[in-house]
């Protein structure tokens, strides 16, 4: 029997692991959608694959995603090289440019949710195909938008019921601040290059800030021993003022956060604001989501200068956090009526009746003919409110036998009477 690729998951109601139960998944995406629509953001769906160039430029040539070959790359029949998206921001900015959204009233605020692909080593909370809710505010370089994005992200988590949240805010400065910081880091790390992990030795020349968020313990020890000054200490006047504005706005909004100088977002195009939201209970893979400002991305994609800020929320991670906090997800509603055919001609009668009632009320049918006792058992298992029997006797009298499962009350109703029973609010 063929199986799914490890690190990919089927999402369905009865899935054994909590993060892959469809009602949990839906609870998260619907809540996020309500919060974001309620704030005036519009939904966008972009393709899950793009020309590789869009995605590579989007994440940056020195990012782990490119360096460690975490992108799924494919070739179409015309020999064009495509990639599966490792994050949605580049696609959304590409769409903004392609559809001339720059002439709309700014900012343009868009959100999406869907699958993301990264060829990472599989472990709990880290998958090859996972899902993100993503929000982007494009076209206005105002710290108010950064604060709003953080507020919306936090509100999504809180609306879901999560409590143990930590918002960590940093700034990666402007490109010129980063040049100065990278020079400082190179000088600091060069004498220790031999001891750094292989990845970090490459990072040392290409993008030394990456060493700071290396997952290698040896690298982390070197970083700690060297007492590396944070990026925040290298901010220029403009990026410092911007950072302070974001902090001030968050305080005004009553959002608790800590300034964490170690926040270095793994993607190349981030400038200024960068943040992560962590959950105290989910251990090492504690990031529930992250976000930041990326004012240079559009130009990298060959478009005009379009400032932007946005975030990505890891849906599976959020599900793990919900499980940890013991937050119960409303179960799927059970049918109001379960219609059971007792003989063969009643099969299509049951389906026709179900279809005529369905706009008003949720109806399931029993499909194969069965005894009234078995039909009753099935209706109870489904959690239905009523069971309706259709058999030879009912056909002869032109009625349906309807039983209310909780009271046990049973009566025969003509189809019209049945329709009027379900005319008002759902009797469930
Ligand atoms: P990133 O785009 O790397 O900042 O990721 C944003 C969020 O997506 C993270 O904070 C995680 O919650 C989630 N995430 C990232 N990579 C994975 C993965 N491989 N599997 C599951 N969730 C992930």
TrEMBL record:
Main location: cytoplasm
Domain named Aminoacyl-transfer RNA synthetases class-II family profile: residues: 28-330
UniProt keyword terms in alphabetical order: Aminoacyl-tRNA synthetase, ATP-binding, Cytoplasm, Ligase, Nucleotide-binding, Protein biosynthesis
GO CC terms: cytoplasm
Reaction it catalyzes: tRNA(His) + L-histidine + ATP = L-histidyl-tRNA(His) + AMP + diphosphate + H(+)
Residues spanning the membrane: none
Enzyme class, first EC level, given as a word: ligase
Localization per Swiss-Prot or TrEMBL: Cytoplasm
Gene Ontology terms for molecular function: ATP binding; histidine-tRNA ligase activity
SUPFAM superfamilies noted in UniProt: Class II aaRS ABD-related, Class II aaRS and biotin synthetases
Residues reported to bind L-histidine: 87-89, 118, 132, 136, 265, 269-270
The protein's assembly and partners: Homodimer.
Protein family: Belongs to the class-II aminoacyl-tRNA synthetase family.
Name listed for the protein in its UniProt record: Histidine--tRNA ligase
Gene designation: hisS
């Amino acid at each position: 029997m063929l199986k799914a690729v490890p690190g990919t998951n089927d999402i369905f109601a009865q899935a054994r692991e909590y993060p892959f139960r469809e009602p949990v998944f839906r609870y998260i995406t619907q809540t996020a959608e309500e919060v974001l629509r309620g704030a005036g953001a519009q939904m966008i769906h972009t393709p899950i694959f793009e020309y590789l160039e869009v995605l590579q430029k989007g994440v940056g040539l020195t990012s782990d995603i490119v360096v460690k070959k975490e992108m799924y790359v494919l070739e179409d029949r015309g020999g064009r090289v495509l990639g599966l998206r490792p994050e949605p921001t580049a696609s959304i900015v590409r769409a903004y440019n392609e559809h001339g959204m720059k002439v709309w009233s700014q900012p343009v605020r868009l959100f999406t949710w869907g699958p993301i692909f990264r060829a990472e080593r599989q472990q709990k909370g880290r998958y090859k195909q996972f899902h993100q809710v993503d929000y982007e505010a494009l076209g206005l370089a105002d710290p108010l938008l950064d604060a709003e994005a953080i507020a919306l992200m936090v509100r999504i988590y809180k609306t879901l019921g999560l409590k143990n949240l930590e918002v960590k805010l940093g700034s990666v400065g402007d490109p010129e601040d980063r040049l100065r910081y990278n020079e400082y880091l190179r000088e600091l790390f060069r004498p220790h290059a031999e001891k750094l992990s292989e990845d970090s030795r490459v990072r040392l020349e290409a993008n030394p800030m990456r060493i700071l968020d290396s997952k290698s313990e040896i690298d982390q020890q070197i970083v700690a021993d060297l007492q590396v000054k944070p990026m925040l200490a290298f901010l220029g006047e403009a990026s410092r003022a911007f950072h302070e504005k974001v902090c001030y706005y968050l305080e005004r909004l009553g959002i608790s956060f800590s300034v964490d100088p170690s926040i270095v977002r793994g993607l190349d195009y981030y400038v200024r604001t960068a943040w992560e939201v962590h959950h105290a209970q989910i251990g090492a893979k504690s990031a529930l989501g992250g976000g930041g400002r990326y004012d240079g991305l559009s130009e990298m994609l060959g478009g005009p200068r379009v400032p932007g800020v946005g975030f990505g929320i890891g849906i599976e991670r959020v599900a793990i956090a919900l499980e940890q906090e013991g937050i119960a997800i409303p179960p799927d509603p059970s049918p109001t009526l379960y219609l059971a055919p007792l003989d063969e001609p009643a099969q299509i009668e049951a389906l026709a009746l179900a279809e005529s009632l369905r706009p008003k009320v949720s109806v399931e049918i029993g499909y194969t003919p069965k005894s009234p006792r078995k039909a009753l058992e099935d209706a109870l298992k489904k959690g239905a409110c009523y069971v309706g029997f259709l058999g030879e006797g009912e056909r002869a009298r032109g009625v349906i036998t309807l039983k209310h499962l909780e009271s046990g009350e049973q009566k025969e109703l003509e189809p019209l009477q049945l329709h009027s029973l379900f005319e008002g609010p759902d009797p469930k």
